């Protein structure tokens, strides 16, 4: 059927993504970072932030909104703080560099924060928290985005979907990984469901008047995490992302962004900000105590009493299981993306 996905092996999919970026003249460092982040998302089942974004990024690169050959500039502000100027390139390049720098500084000082300015959409924030955890650090990454989510009780979009991502190393296992939007779902999932012509779950999106809808073609906003009764929690958490990524960095506030999609202007950079943080366990209880504590914590969590028929999972367990399955069966690619990347079943 026309709206069905096709399964593509990781290697083939990555080759086609890289080829698409090279075709529009993207620098190697930038395209490799973008491909790495999108492949992470597609691998673990976050398809809304996976390879389906390749076409959007290529359009913005050709239109001039994104710099094809960004030159990152780093300014260290103190022993444990620094900034990265993304030179209006793709956000993945600047965000990976920021996390790498945060880990370098935290290795010496115990903890470090790095902010990014003059950047753009970075995809799945969890990709950068994961990079920190794989380097041995407890890590955090966030960004603000253009308005897609009403305030609690609001009638118009105000905050972005503003993700919060945390990760921690887990000895002998894949890292503990939390990557969550502060909205009920990310707007990119609405766009994915449009491509698949698939109904949205109840209570996660609204039309232009703020009325909840399951029709992805009518949805123009996504509701804050917590829904109609407790959405003040998600709205406040979205503000944390804005405070760290925008206010702290002097970059664009959520309501002031040129929309990521649907705007006539694809030439003007959006000056998006990000923020990452890294903590070295060596500077606190010590590596050995931290590692044993993480194992005990996660084992206790997974083996806690569960309701009949339920399985208790630590953050990241579901994603790593999906990555294993997709590694064996292939990564599902939606029809629009398959056409753009020139993929066939």
From TrEMBL:
Coiled coil: none annotated. The keyword Oxidoreductase applies. One of its GO terms (molecular function) is oxidoreductase activity. Keywords: Oxidoreductase. InterPro entries: Mal/L-sulf/L-lact_DH-like_ah, Mal/L-sulf/L-lact_DH-like_NADP, Mal/L-sulfo/L-lacto_DH-like_sf, Malate/L-lactate_DH-like. It holds the Pfam family Ldh_2. Belongs to the LDH2/MDH2 oxidoreductase family. This is Oxidoreductase.
């Amino acid at each position: 059927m026309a709206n069905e996905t096709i399964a593509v092996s990781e290697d083939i999919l990555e080759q086609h993504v890289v080829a698409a970026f090279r075709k529009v003249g993207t620098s190697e460092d930038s395209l490799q970072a973008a491909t790495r982040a999108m492949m992470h998302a597609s691998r673990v089942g976050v398809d809304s932030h996976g390879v389906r974004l390749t076409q959007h990024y290529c359009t913005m690169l050709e239109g001039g909104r994104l710099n094809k050959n960004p030159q990152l500039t780093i300014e260290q502000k103190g022993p444990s703080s620094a900034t990265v100027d993304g030179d209006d390139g793709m956000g993945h390049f600047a965000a990976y560099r920021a996390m790498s720098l945060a880990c370098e500084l935290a290795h010496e000082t115990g903890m470090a924060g790095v902010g990014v300015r003059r950047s753009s959409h970075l995809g799945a924030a969890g990709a950068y928290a994961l990079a920190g955890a794989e380097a041995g650090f407890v890590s955090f990454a966030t960004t603000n985005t253009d308005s897609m989510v009403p305030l609690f009780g609001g009638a118009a979009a105000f905050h972005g979907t503003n993700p919060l991502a945390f990760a921690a190393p887990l000895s002998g296992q894949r890292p503990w990984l939390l990557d969550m939007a502060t909205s009920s779902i990310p707007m990119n999932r609405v766009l994915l469901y449009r491509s698949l012509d698939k109904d949205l779950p109840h209570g996660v999106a609204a039309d232009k008047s703020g009325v909840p809808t399951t029709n992805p073609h009518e949805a123009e906003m996504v509701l804050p995490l917590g829904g109609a009764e407790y959405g003040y929690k998600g709205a406040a958490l979205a503000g944390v992302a804005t405070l760290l990524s925008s206010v702290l960095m002097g970059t664009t506030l959520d309501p002031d962004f040129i929309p990521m999609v649907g705007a006539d202007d694809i030439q003007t950079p959006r000056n998006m900000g990000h923020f990452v943080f890294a903590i070295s366990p060596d500077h606190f209880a010590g590596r050995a105590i931290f590692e044993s504590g993480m194992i005990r914590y996660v084992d206790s969590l997974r083996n806690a009493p569960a309701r009949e028929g339920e399985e208790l999972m630590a953050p990241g367990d579901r994603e790593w299981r999906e990555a294993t399955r997709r590694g064996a069966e292939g990564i599902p690619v939606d029809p629009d993306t398959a056409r753009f990347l020139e993929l066939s079943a």
